[in-house]
Amino acid sequence: MGPGYAYFDPGGSLQVRTVAITTLGCKVNQYDSEAIAAQFQKAGFEVVPFEDVADVYVINTCTVTRMGDKKSRQFIRRAHSRNPDALIVATGCYAQASPREVAALPGVCVVSGTYDRERIVQAVLDFDESSRPSRRDSDVVGVNREVLEGRDVAPQVLVRETSSFGPFEELAVEGWTERTRAYVKIEDGCENFCSYCKVPYVRGPVRSRDPRKIRKEIELLASLGYREVVLTGIDLGAYGRDFGGSPDVAEILEAAASVEGIARVRLSSVDPTDVTEQLISTMADHVEVCPHLHIPLQSGSDTVLSLMNRRYTVSEYEDIVSMARERIPDLAVTTDVIVGFPGEDEEAFQATCDVCRRSRFSRMHVFQYSRRRGTVASTLPGQVSRIEKARRSAELIALGGELSLGFHRQLLGRSMSVLVEQADHEGFEGLTGNYVRVYAVGSALPGDIVNVCVSEADEGFVRGSIEELT
């Protein structure tokens, strides 16, 4: 940390400003939060836990579901309650979607969307009663002066229309709180326009990161001792489309796997239509690439998939999973499923359960459909009741537990390579390449890659004992 900006508190003592950051939503938001934290540190701020009393709070918001909106507001109010004098920054997808609502929340001084995040720190530094920030109308989306009446100082709103977003925004991360695994954001934006989803409206078009900068960041992480990197993006499989298709995500994956010091490279979520033969071949041909694919299914009904504007059929999805399993040993396939989508009847729901069983997912993320204003799905007939959505969700979650247990039982008696994340005098925990949580007896340090013989299987994890250091 540099010398820092200092200020005199009412007691007259010299202090370094503190900032607390919390993140809602996806891995991309986690990356963005780490980058924002790094910017504050460069400006001399000390990053403290969100539960602490801080001078500045940053809430990186989510708007995928109505619950995401609600939790974002709750965190903003919680920060203001913890320190009414703190400056609050709201950034991310909910801030992009609803800047007017966010600007009106107590304590908010800066509203930043999903672009121009490099302006956040300066906006905070500029925000004080003696130098009120000027706000150009062109900087503000959906905010008028009436909403700001009665406020001592007008919030600075750094939100613009997604159509005016420039190229991929470089927000370099130089380290992560977790010291063994790091996320590397390689893409932003989405142009799929699934009928239930607000993401394309708040993240803008596909924007791919310069491959040279991706490699530079991975090399830096390797030099800092990170053993695994996870390539992530809003629509990861779309990487390179704005470059004319080259390099694509398979080529970036191969380049990442070649960085000296990186033992593992993992992909986050890839849409079925982007799981190509080239991508599967790259995964199969490089031992550094983790045998794990997260491929969202969303529904096991072709009718519902069509209503969702998903661009594949159930048969095509199952063919992709089969092709990947044939080529990649020990492959784990995880997925996302939405229940209670408009028009999903009991037959369609049971079809989804059947596909999940046949696909033998090792882990399932189950979401109840959330009606989002402004999306096509919000206007569809056949909206499913909350009670029915909850029932279907519970049934599918239970099925997911059964499938996870079945996958973990296949590992009994086998030796699995584990990247150690945490350790104490009793043992350690970590993840296998195929994304299984392991608790083991033995001596190892975070960052070690060890072989563990699996002796117990549970829905959420396996247990075993260390064999040897690799």
Mean pLDDT across every amino acid position: 91
Radius of gyration: 23 Å
User: What is the CATH architecture descriptor of the largest domain?
Assistant: 3-Layer(aba) Sandwich
Biggest sheet features: 6 strands, parallel
β-sheet strand percentage:
15-25%
Mass-distribution shape: globular
CATH first level of the largest domain: which class?
Alpha Beta
Number of strands: 20
Number of helices: 13
- SSE-based structural type: alpha/beta
Q: What's the N-to-C terminus distance?
A: 35 Å
Which fold name corresponds to the CATH topology of the largest domain? Rossmann fold
What low-confidence regions span 5 or more consecutive residues with pLDDT below 50? 1-14, 129-150
The count of domains is: 4
CATH superfamily of the largest domain: Methylthiotransferase, N-terminal domain
**Spatial arrangement of strands, main beta sheet:** 4-3-5-6-7-8
